[in-house]
Design a protein that fits this description.
Largest sheet: 3 strands, antiparallel
Number of strands: 5
CATH architecture of the largest domain: Orthogonal Bundle
Number of domains: 2
Order of helices and strands: EEEHEEHHH
Bound molecules: FE2/S2 (inorganic) cluster
Structural class: alpha+beta
Strand content: 25-35%
Strand order of the largest sheet: 1-2-3
Number of helices: 4
Helix content: 25-40%
Distance between the termini: 29 Å
Length: 107
C-alpha cells in the first residue's frame, strides 16, 4: 500500500479513517457504523492502539493471548509505550484490553 491510514475518531459505535496516497493526496475518507458490519479482525488490524509506534490492536491482543498480563509486559513484547508520548495515550487502552480479556469480553 502506498500511503498510510490514520485513525481520526473512535468510540463504541463510530469510526472514521482517512487514507492518504503519496500520489493523489487524500483519496478516501470512510466512516462505518461498527455494529457487526465489519469483521472484528479487520478492525483489530487497522486500529492503532499505540499511535506513536503504529502498533495495531491485533498485535496487542496477540501479546495478551500469549500471556502478557500487564501493560509493562505488553510493552516489552510489542514495543508499545516507547513512542513519543511514553505510553500516555496507549497505556489505558492496553489496560482496558487486558481487563477485557480477563473478563471474557474477547478471546
Ligand atoms: S501511543 Fe503508545 S507510546 Fe504513544
Amino acid at each position: 500500500m502506498n500511503g498510510y491510514e490514520t485513525e481520526l475518531q473512535e468510540d463504541e459505535h463510530y469510526m472514521m479513517y482517512c487514507h492518504w496516497s503519496d500520489d493523489l493526496g487524500i483519496i478516501q475518507v470512510r466512516s462505518d457504523i461498527m455494529d457487526n458490519q465489519i469483521d472484528p479482525r479487520i478492525m483489530d488490524n487497522i486500529t492503532k492502539t499505540c499511535i506513536c509506534r503504529a502498533i495495531p490492536r491485533s498485535k496487542i491482543k496477540d501479546a495478551i493471548r500469549k500471556g502478557a498480563d500487564s501493560v509493562v509486559k505488553v510493552n516489552e513484547v510489542t514495543g508499545s509505550g516507547s513512542g513519543e508520548c511514553r505510553g500516555r495515550r496507549c497505556g489505558l487502552k492496553i489496560k482496558a484490553l487486558i481487563d477485557g480479556y480477563k473478563s471474557g469480553e474477547w478471546e
